[in-house]
Design brief:
heterodimer; A: 874 residues; alpha+beta; six-stranded mixed beta barrel; elongated; B: 114 residues; two-stranded antiparallel ribbon; 4 helices; 2 strands; globular
């Protein structure tokens, strides 16, 4: 209340203060006059001994103010008048900052959605998956039986765990069965995730086994988001399930379409995967030590589901699901920060130039008793006003940017975890606010400090000595320009590297013909075709029927998808080869695979139909395998040992009778990418898919022309005639798959890097332009004199552009050095080679050409100064 | 803040203490206060006259002194500063803490001599 009252009584306090001081001075003067001084002398002495009256009054008044806030209000009013007075400057600065901050906020929204808060689940950061390692670096997923899981769940280091079992099932009861991805989840699984249902409810331990909870996308696609769906029935593999509820959009665990309760089974052939959440404060190491002995005991009960001598390793789900994009996103954040830095440098250049123009004002303020700190605060308020306005515009730009990113991501469902929600949300807005303030200080502090150093003498000098600007300011300009050039080079190099990589990928030799090729996943009814012979005949029957369809050239069976997807990586050894051990990618296919994909058989032969149906121990290898193990000898007839080539059979996996790990090589085929497009091709061993048959396979079909919707429908119908309950999964063309899998990712990354680089270049050029124009206007009189005295125009041009261009050269050199120095980081986090000489030459050419372009206008301006006018202008 | 006059005196608070003490003798206006302090200290303490006023404003705000309209020695209307009970308490605190500090410094200096 006292504070409140003080605001109103302040005016009289101020008057009292002035009065007291006035009275003090007069009394002192009178005293001095009485001592015999003249009135003039007395006045001088009294004033000198008293000190700066204005300053003291102000200091006295400050006592009554809540000064930071009131100063701020005054500064804001003043800053507003300043910015309104020079709209061109304001628009340029605000637009620059808005673009910089908009880009930054856009990328931050992606970073926030993907790296910081990717999952809606309760304490997702403590959620882990368990990997088991034997001596090789290829992990096994931990899976266990029902009773084992119930015991595991009770471990004191864990704060809950779920068992789950993912597989495709047929949604039956409609015209054609449709394949849906289902997850069987522990009955108390939803409590583990802690995400409430959007509609209806989730299942709990009290529910029976025939209930289902739908995912949001499935609900939208299949039931048109109808809210009366709760309580209805759906049919999976001819069994009825009651729909209990619908999950919110961000609940996308494992990308399943629907979730049903898992009934725990003691059958060692019915094992389920396990995810757990660690208790608060339990380190990974502690948890691993606690879990290890229990798993060792389990391994004694069910030796088939554990590798020999394993070690447990926890993987946090964000590592598991975000993994490969982390580096790219970090790199993108760095690039976009560089972009913002460029924007800041540009605004700093503008502010410096303006500070120069305001020397007289600043000097006057100081002469009137303003402290340097106060002036810096006021100048900072101006840059903060700019940056906050820029920040608000930047958030609007980010809104557009986020839409653009989301648009880009539509065809790339696998790029980020499906739970990630890229949006302009509160954290992004907060980030934007903090960024605005930070940016305001970053671009304003240096110009403010420089400008505040002005004093009256220097300001007075400036009028008569207007030559090349102040030395200090000039150096600041040079430093800012060099910095801009360096950053621009770095941004362009990043963009160049990703562009080059993209073009390589787009023109890469795939080793197979992706046109007119489609692939579909077929899952047989659970429990159907339970014997090995029965199952492979069923699969073969479907393949043959499709191969005979009109419009189909050939059809093949493969366990993995089309290249560049990988098969199962496993350790292999080769008795007697030059290099005895290593890893290879095992691809299980049939004999039609090579013909259908048009992969050339370079040596030897393909299996006969009988050999495939009997799961003969005969293998084909790719060229990479030949190079690795038989670089100088003929591999045909040699033996390769697939160390995990034998797996225990279970309900889903059937194993050929008499299988062992030894395969004899009968042919060599051309290389196709098998680790993703951007990775090197790994050694591959192709074995008959019949050796180990899952309850699903991929049907790969080459069509005669473009695969039409009618043809795809005919294929589904044909499968339906063989088994009415057999669903056909999504049919994907190889072209789309390549686009979505690898090329789309590269295109996404490349366009972002390139957009940043181009914006950066734009900022750099405009920075150069500003500095040179500023120099020209500052030196107009000097240049006019030079021209009047007979200086050549080209000499004038050189004079104006020399130091700026030198700064650009120096900056470019620094940028180049940084690029070479930092390329290791780039290579580790994304693909592409930022040190490629050809690309760097292009980058340099672009930078220098742009610098030249940016200098043309100011140089022209300088060269055509009219000496008469220039001299008259002062 | 190097040229800020109120920090030029001996230590922070010294000026305040002297003002409070002077006002305890009798209510005074600003010029009289300066003259009083200069006289009593035999001009040993150089204080910038102006620095008195911000200090007085602070004390007004804290409620240690009050200002009243009055008349100066020369018969001019002016502001007279009067010590309040709160100001009196404050002065006592200041003096006792100053005494302690001074005693401490004296002891340290005494040991340094021997």
């Amino acid at each position: 209340m006292r504070w409140f009252k003080s605001i109103f009584s302040r005016r009289s306090q101020y008057d009292d203060l002035s009065l007291s001081i006035q009275e003090h001075l007069e009394e002192k003067i009178e005293d001095l006059v009485e001592e015999g001084m003249s009135r003039a002398e007395a006045t001088n002495l009294a004033r000198r001994e008293f000190g700066n009256v204005t300053l003291i009054e102000e200091r006295g008044r400050e006592v009554w103010q809540w000064s930071p806030l009131e100063n701020l209000a005054a500064d804001l009013r003043f800053a507003w008048r300043q910015t309104a007075k020079s709209p061109r400057f304001t628009i340029a600065a605000v637009a620059t900052l808005a673009i910089g901050m908009g880009a930054q906020a856009t990328i931050y929204s992606v970073v926030h959605a993907v790296l910081i808060d990717p999952f809606p689940y309760l304490d997702a950061l403590r959620m882990v998956h368990l990997h088991l390692y034997d001596k090789t670096p290829i992990p096994f997923d931990l899976a266990m039986t029902g009773p084992q899981f119930l015991e595991f769940q009770k471990l004191p280091v864990l704060d809950g765990a779920i068992a789950e079992d993912l597989f495709g099932r047929a949604l039956t009861g409609e015209e054609l069965p449709e394949q849906v991805q289902t997850a069987r989840l522990s009955p108390d699984g939803f409590a583990f995730f802690g995400v409430p249902a959007l509609l209806g409810r989730e299942f709990g331990p009290g529910d029976n086994a025939h209930v289902a909870v739908l995912s949001y996308p499935f609900w939208k696609a299949h039931y048109a988001a109808r809210s009366d769906i709760v309580g209805k029935t759906l049919q999976l593999d001819h069994e009825n399930y009651t729909i209990l509820g619908v999950l919110p959009q961000r609940f996308a665990w494992m990308g399943s379409d629907l979730y049903t309760p898992l009934s725990y089974s003691a059958d060692p052939h019915r094992i389920a995967n396990v995810y757990a959440r660690l208790k608060v404060g339990v380190s990974d190491r502690t948890a691993e030590e606690a879990i290890g002995p229990m798993l060792a005991a389990f391994a004694k009960q069910t030796p088939d589901s554990f590798p020999p001598n394993f070690k447990v390793h926890l993987v946090h789900i964000n590592e598991l699901l975000v993994g490969r994009m982390r580096g790219v996103l970090i790199l993108l954040s760095i690039s976009v920060s560089f972009l913002l830095l460029l924007a800041c440098a540009n605004v700093a250049i503008l502010l410096l130039a303006r500070g120069e123009a305001r020397q007289a004002e600043i000097a006057l303020r100081k002469a009137l008793g303003a402290r340097p700190g106060r002036i810096v605060t006021q100048l900072l308020t101006e840059s903060l006003l700019l940056s906050i306005t820029g920040g608000i515009c930047g958030v609007l730009l980010a809104l557009a940017g986020i839409r653009l990113v989301r648009h880009f991501l539509v065809p790339l469902p696998g790029l980020f975890p499906p739970e990630a929600n890229i949006a302009l949300n509160l954290p992004v807005l907060l980030f934007g606010a903090v960024l605005s303030v930070f940016t305001g200080v970053a671009c304003g502090i240096w110009p403010a400090l420089r400008t505040a150093r002005t004093d009256l003498r220097r300001a007075a000098d400036a009028g008569s000595h207007k030559l090349a600007g102040r030395k200090g300011t000039h150096n600041s300009h040079i430093a800012l320009l060099a910095g801009q050039a360096a950053i621009t080079v770095l941004l362009l190099a990043c963009s160049g590297a990703t562009l080059q990589k993209l073009s390589q990928l787009m023109h890469a030799n795939l080793g197979y013909d992706p046109h007119h090729l489609i692939s579909a996943n077929l899952v047989s009814l659970e429990g159907g075709h339970p014997t090995w012979g029965d199952r492979i005949h069923y699969f073969e029957q479907i393949r043959q029927a499709i191969a005979l369809e009109p419009g189909v050239m050939s059809a093949a069976i493969a366990q993995a998808g089309m290249p560049p997807s990988s098969g199962s990586r496993m350790p292999v050894s080769v008795p007697g080869a030059d290099s005895v051990g290593g890893e290879a990618d095992q691809q299980r296919v049939d004999l039609n695979y090579f013909r259908t994909l048009k992969i050339p058989v370079l040596q030897g032969r393909v299996w006969s139909s009988t050999e495939v149906m009997n799961a003969a121990h005969l293998a084909l290898i790719n060229q990479a395998m030949q190079r690795r193990f038989w670089p100088h000898t003929d591999p045909i007839g040699k033996t390769v040992v697939m160390n995990r080539g034998v797996v225990p059979a279970n309900v889903w996996t059937l194993v050929a009778p008499g299988i062992d790990q030894h395969f004899q090589i009968i042919g060599v085929v051309g290389d196709t990418p098998n680790q993703g497009l951007e990775e090197q091709i790994a050694p591959s061993v192709f074995v008959p898919y019949t050796a180990i048959t899952y309850d699903w396979f991929n049907l790969i079909v080459r069509t005669e022309g473009e695969p039409t919707a009618a043809l795809l429908h005919r294929i589904k119908e044909r499968v339906h005639t063989i088994d009415a309950g057999q669903a056909v999964g999504d049919m994907v063309t190889a072209d789309d798959m390549l686009e979505g899998d690898s090329l789309g990712r590269e295109k996404f990354i490349t366009s972002l890097f390139t957009a940043f680089a181009l914006l950066g270049l734009m900022f750099g050029v405009s920075g150069l332009y500003c500095i040179e124009s500023y120099l020209v206007t500052q030196r107009t009189r000097e240049l006019g004199v030079r021209i009047a005295l007979g200086a050549q125009r080209q000499h004038i041009v050189r004079l104006v552009t020399r130091s700026s261009l030198l700064a650009v050269f120096a900056g470019t050199a620094i940028g180049l050095a940084l690029d070479l120095g930092l390329s290791g980081i780039f290579v580790r986090w994304t693909s592409g080679n930022p040190r490629d000489p050809g690309m760097l030459v292009v980058v340099l050419a672009v930078v220098l050409a742009s610098a030249g372009l940016g200098s043309i206008v100011p140089a022209q301006l300088a060269a055509w100064i009219d000496p008469m006018e220039a001299l008259r202008a002062e | 803040m190097g040229n800020n006059p109120e920090f030029r005196d001996l230590f922070p608070g010294a000026l305040e203490m002297m003002i409070l003490h002077s006002l305890r003798l009798k209510p005074m206006h600003g010029y009289a206060l300066v003259k009083h302090i200069k006289q009593v200290s035999d001009n040993l303490l150089q204080i910038e006259e102006g620095s008195l006023y911000p200090a007085l404003q602070r004390m007004l705000k804290e409620g240690w002194v009050q200002s009243k309209p009055g008349v100066s020695a020369k018969g001019r209307p002016t502001r007279i500063y009067v010590l309040t009970p709160a100001g009196r308490r404050r002065l006592e605190q200041e003096i006792s803490s100053f005494d302690k500090m001074f005693a401490g410094i004296t002891r340290v200096l005494a040991t340094a001599k021997t």
